[in-house]
Design a protein that fits this description.
Keywords: ATP-binding, Carbohydrate metabolism, Glycogen biosynthesis, Glycogen metabolism, Nucleotide-binding, Nucleotidyltransferase, Transferase. This protein has helices at 48-58, 72-81, 111-116, 119-125, 143-153, 214-225, 234-245, 274-283, 394-400, 413-419, and strands at residues 14-20, 40-41, 45-46, 62-67, 92-97, 129-134, 138-139, 157-165, 173-177, 183-188, 202-213, 248-252, 268-269, 311-313, 315-316, 319-320, 322-324, 327-328, 333-335, 338-340, 343-344, 349-350, 355-361, 366-367, 372-378, 383-384, 389-390, 402-403, 409-411. The chain has 420 residues and is α/β, with parallel strands linked by helices. It folds into 2 domains: 10-285, Spore Coat Polysaccharide Biosynthesis Protein SpsA, Chain A (Alpha-Beta Complex), CATH 3.90.550.10; 311-418, Hexapeptide repeat proteins (UDP N-Acetylglucosamine Acyltransferase, domain 1). The strands form 6 sheets. Strands 1, 4, 5, 6, 8, 9, 10, 11 and 12 form a 9-stranded mixed β-sheet that branches. Strands 17, 18, 20, 21, 23, 25, 27, 28 and 29 form a 9-stranded mixed β-sheet that branches. The chain has a 5-stranded parallel β-sheet with strand order 14-19-22-24-26, with no helix packed on it.
């Protein structure tokens, strides 16, 4: 969906504020040294690039990013990839690490507190609207359309939401609403989720996306900060309070999702587990992928490494450099090896007679000669020994590596070091 209401874009008066401080502990060792939004995705990108690209493509030119957990990798990426905003064009990009700005003993205590502690910085940019975003989901969305609904409905807050099966809604913040899309209840991770009017099989789940007028948001944050019983969280405190005392409206993702012509479904993924992360990456290798990363009308911006093109060498029977149904990034060398339905991120090297089938191979990994890998995630910089076999013996794999319920093996440098 790309049509917009004719008139002055509301995005020009908005600021996007991305909450990117979470670890993402369900990604296990993949987030030992980086926050979840900094995790690599799709061959060239980081997870946070999707929320930031949506903001830029929607016309928002003032952006703040709140960081906390092990933020160095994330901050370095944003400094490299997102330093093109120009103050003289009324653009800004603020990286806002937790820095005890309110109290010498207080880091960000919750999602709402991560905004509250930076009110003065936001005020300096004077946005009329605030678009609060989670920095750890994969999707394409036009926030301008959500802003338009917010203004036309007269809402105090507009909440982005997904239609999900009721049985899957227990892990989300879930909304009950009336036929006018006014939210009548908002509950976090309910055992018995409320359903959509007229559809008992589905629920409306929060995407962690909220639109406010800035003045109203500040009032709510200040009220919440004065409440000693609050957990300082949007989903747990701010939104339920507004539902009870004001007007909260649901905005369905179907009304503002971005789809290229060949994309069938409205694509949104929480890649919060290793299996979900693996599946979402492998989705991109399909002939017609569910998520189109080649859409030049809605590009996913990221740090573009200056490197040589990918290279495939050797053309002998049994020793032929090939990639089938795979994404191969810059600076990769596939030397007499085979990549099948896999993603090779920047700088991956594959030695002769090695193979990877259904692999997510993060940057600068080296796969030794004769290694045979199936259904794996390799953390960045891993060096696979010659002849190593993964994906044939589940019990052996589970003893050596992190093996998921779906049979995906996460392999890190420390795990390889223990094999020596």
């Amino acid at each position: 969906m790309r049509d917009r209401t004719i008139g002055q874009p509301l995005a020009r008066d908005a600021m996007a504020y991305v909450l990117a401080g979470g670890r993402g502990s369900r990604l296990k060792e993949l987030t030992d040294n980086r926050a979840k939004p900094a995790v690599y995705f799709g061959g060239v990108s980081r997870i946070i690039d999707f929320a930031l690209s949506n903001a830029i493509n929607s016309g928002i030119r003032r952006i703040g990013v709140a960081t906390q957990y092990k933020a160095h990798s994330l901050i370095r990426h944003m400094n490299r990839a997102w330093n093109f905003m120009r103050p003289e064009r009324n653009e800004s990009f603020d990286i806002l690490p937790a820095s005890q700005r309110v109290s010498e003993h207080q880091w960000y205590e919750g999602t709402a507190d991560a905004v509250f502690q930076n009110i003065d910085i936001i005020q300096a940019h004077a946005p009329k609207y605030m678009v609060i975003l989670a920095g750890d989901h994969i999707y394409k969305m036009d926030y301008e359309l959500m802003l338009q609904q917010h203004v036309s409905s007269g809402a105090d807050v507009t909440v982005g939401c997904l239609v999900v099966p009721k049985k899957d809604a227990t892990g989300f913040g879930v909304m009950a609403m009336d036929e006018a899309s006014t939210i009548t209840a908002f509950v976090e991770k309910p055992a018995d989720p409320p359903t959509i009017p007229g559809d008992d099989a589905h629920s409306l789940a929060s995407m962690g996306i909220y639109v406010f007028e800035t003045k109203f948001l500040f009032e709510q944050l200040q009220r919440d900060a004065a409440d000693p019983a609050s957990s300082r969280d949007f989903g747990g405190d701010i939104i339920p309070y507004i539902v009870k005392h004001g007007k909260a409206v649901a905005h369905r993702f179907t009304d503002s999702c971005i789809r290229a012509a060949e994309e069938i479904e409205e694509y949104w993924r929480d890649v919060g587990t290793l299996d979900a992360y693996f599946d979402a990456n492998l989705d991109l290798t399909d002939t017609v992928p569910k998520l189109n990363m080649y859409d030049r009308d809605w590009p996913i911006w990221t740090d573009q490494v200056v490197a040589a093109p990918a290279k495939f060498v050797h053309d002998e029977e049994g020793r032929r450099g090939m990639a089938i149904s795979s994404l191969i990034s810059q600076d990769c060398i596939v030397s007499g090896a085979l990549a099948r339905r896999s993603l090779l991120f920047t700088g991956v090297k594959m030695g002769s007679f090695s193979s990877v089938e259904e692999g997510v191979i993060l940057p600068y990994c080296n796969i030794g000669r004769g290694a045979q890998l199936k259904r794996v995630i390799l953390d960045s910089g891993v060096r696979i020994p010659e002849g190593l076999v993964v994906g044939e013996d589940p019990e052996l794999d589970a003893r050596r590596f992190r093996r998921t319920e779906n049979g995906v093996c996460l392999i890190t440098k420390a795990m390889i070091d223990r094999l020596a």
